[in-house]
């Protein structure tokens, strides 16, 4: 048997598992796995470092299927290579409820799935983050412990999405030469030929951003291998354009959009079996072919053994720290450093913007943690994301801890996800809260995957002032809170900001957004408390002088307003309590008793937030009053905007008194 | 006086107005207007067709300041050129509440502002839409009536945002040769030199997508003019890279990021006055310089007179239709065509997915309206956005009415905004609802501008099935409803779909999103009604057999479930009414009486929607029950998903009965 024959039958194993699974599910995408089977076979059988028995081995190569609809390519590989949890039954249950083989690869469903993909372009940008993480950790720990590649299989859709440009430009700039993108250049998209909507010379485009590129026949194993070899020795990231036929092997659908996203049907599959000489039953892989694949899996694992020996031989402190960071645990000294800082805050009672108190917290955090890696989408001085410890990373020097992500919010968020997925680092990155819209698809995926990406979103309301409505978030707190498993924090002062940072860093199962002000805020929490009060999501920050007749709920910059209104109301004889609500998501997770106690039974309830009412309705019920926004903002000095939109202590006081008056009248 | 001297003082007028306005506001961005003043002066004084007295002249050239932070460049131009509403007082009131001179250019605040910009990259993509509209209308009406250019001034930020790639690739593909982008290549971003985060060869990048490019000294008027001349005769879109100095003229800040986003300060301005030989008082333009500019404005207007003569000479029907379309009115026959279609629906009672009934409605709409221009981000067959009337537009033939936007949701939405802003066409475009996240920044701007972009968002819930959670919207209805002035429609059957389309088309002040199912739904509205019931946002679709003890509120595909639950509840002796809620946004606009009547006083209230609860809290109060999603979805056949997540008639019935039981127990 020639090497080519062996290759072909290994590749065909992917093709037929994919065809069979899609057919059984009566749903799915056979075209990509069939077209890219040769690429994947070459990559995994000749290049990839990984270990099916130790799938989380930190120094494994990363493989990202950016074209996530081709999930059966990945599932087939994992099964064939011997990943234990990817059984043939899972393949048979493709796209069924409860299976590990979801329609698109879901991170956490099965080992070997490095990231959740499907929304196009995300995987490519995740991979940039993974390659950044590799380079950064290699700089810290040396190539003995960290030396691996990141491979991406991307489709036309990935390259058409705008996020791809952000990713490509960032990778090219940073000279991420261990990032290798294999473009499945099949010339087909859902509507038909790619030429219906695109005429871009993709190789020229990548080259314009500092990439190496090479074009090959995506069905010629040796050509693919030569291209990967060349890519691995380049000092730039490389894009390999692999000319392929979508649905390769299908007699009438190959090379057409009909092969893309639906089962081929029995007749077409019979034709493919004939064309490719495949005689096994559906879901059956000839034992000699399975052996070929399993040998690949076993052989690849040998590198891990050598690596483990190097790790074992390393300095115990280095090893301990490396292992801690890869586990994602926070270091021992962190808690006490934060406690010391919070005691200092209680003494100093600084009147600063929460973006500034975030920077102050980060000075402590970045001092106590070596694994944080900061950045901003070109708003460093505004987001206050850089601290004394974080020198910029440059293309030729990765000793820094700060990334100038450029004006690329979406690429930043997706790269942060890649950094978090890689492990060993905790990424945080900043932009204006309003531009969370640009980053939203990646923020959603962070939430779906449950990874620790921390988004520092400053200028969190009309409080940003003169830049006007295009820059003023109004609906963004609501829209981010709406994402499942996304923690939105909006601290009211420096103490709450410190607490929210603690919560975000400790949360290994959810991404967090910190919504922070541009404008200064007074210290409201002026005593040190060992208990992290923000952990409850909402808590009484100022109790009423007597049995409360008014409860005011507020977050962030509006807690100050609530406290002022309380004073005015109590001066007028209306006992009033104030509840600070730094995190509605956490509040919703508290016990019913706690929630009821916090909501309280004061006859008048008011929520104050310089955003829309929607997230507060649950707390306010029918009767509650909302003081906030119900339109876009405007351009002007922020104090005037607060007055213009009626978000003032006077407005809160007046609304409460009017309602108290109504109640009295009714009695 | 030489031509150059005249140019310089005209350009300096922009520079000093900008410096003075930013200084007075103590906020703003002087750097771009100072750096790009030469480009703008050349463009407006030598090339632009426009008429300050008739600013809405349909055949004017469009100028888009994509780098919206440089708003003072535009405001200065409008003032200098004699646009009536841009007075010197407005310039003096830059960035003040209520002025026309907001921090970023706001469409509708002053004439001559063609689009709202600030969120980077949007203007560039709007301009692609404007150029598409021009080419399309020129194809329909001939160059006598439609023959103008679209000019864009873009900054580094615009080109770094991913949306720029989508826009560039689409424009290059469509050969939009009347689109000319002037890149303010000043090498500076907020964090410092662009080289901190980017190494892209922008000219090579544009060329890779089929653009002509040329590089010039952005302070050399004749070089700029020659480049624009060349661009105007190209058969491709052109990008002119203009090497400039940010803050040109400022003695110490020019060429640095310090010139970008804050006032220069009195000393720096004194230095600039000295350097540029400017002796007038702040906000004062020497009369001879103002005259030079006003002559430009008057001269440019002459083209409009000739154009008006051509329009007057045109066939009366053509003229009438052209004027109607430019006004944005719907044609006379539309209402009756829809009435006829709805009568037919009442007869046929089709059981189809709402994506299909949207296609059916579009067949009628596209037959009755010549101005609709459809498209999809490469999901044509899934979004059902193409009808018999809409042949594809190709690079060489714009006679069609359908755009293959490619896998570019963001670029599509922003281009649609540009088409809507241009006038004469009504854009609609499709993708999956979950990918509204990709398009969200442009959808927000459509809402802020109040323009008629219609987003056709199919696969609107877990009902899409096997593609899994990456493709299943859960929070998207909430997140879109959260955007002020954005109408979210979720029709329950073919009749409601027709009504929602009527509402979206008639609404010239808001963009609309139609959320549509993949799965089939029965006809629930089986009688023809002249009154558009969806116009109320919510209405009783099934009344209770007796005084209702249960009210069920539902939208879209869940109305069927509500109706089934009603039957079950009434069979058990619990009179139940069902309220269909196709548009919560419209419901919120109804009178309090109407809203109260619709909410009703049944003791048990249940809302059913395959999304999160947040938007329903206002309707449910504390006591209401919600049957919907509180997590991400899953991959599986959709019926199983509905059962798995408990969104079934049985679940609704059980929840209602349990609550009724509690109530009875309490009595």
TrEMBL record, chains A, B:
A molecular function annotated in GO for this UniProt entry is: metal ion binding
- Describe the reaction catalysed, as an equation: D-sedoheptulose 7-phosphate + D-glyceraldehyde 3-phosphate = aldehydo-D-ribose 5-phosphate + D-xylulose 5-phosphate
Catalytic residues per the record?
409 (proton donor)
Keywords from the UniProt entry: Calcium, Magnesium, Metal-binding, Thiamine pyrophosphate, Transferase
- What SUPFAM superfamilies does the record tag this protein with? Thiamin diphosphate-binding fold (THDP-binding), TK C-terminal domain-like
UniProt cofactor(s): Mg(2+); thiamine diphosphate; Ca(2+); Mn(2+)
**Protein name listed in UniProt:** Transketolase
- Gene this protein is translated from: tkt
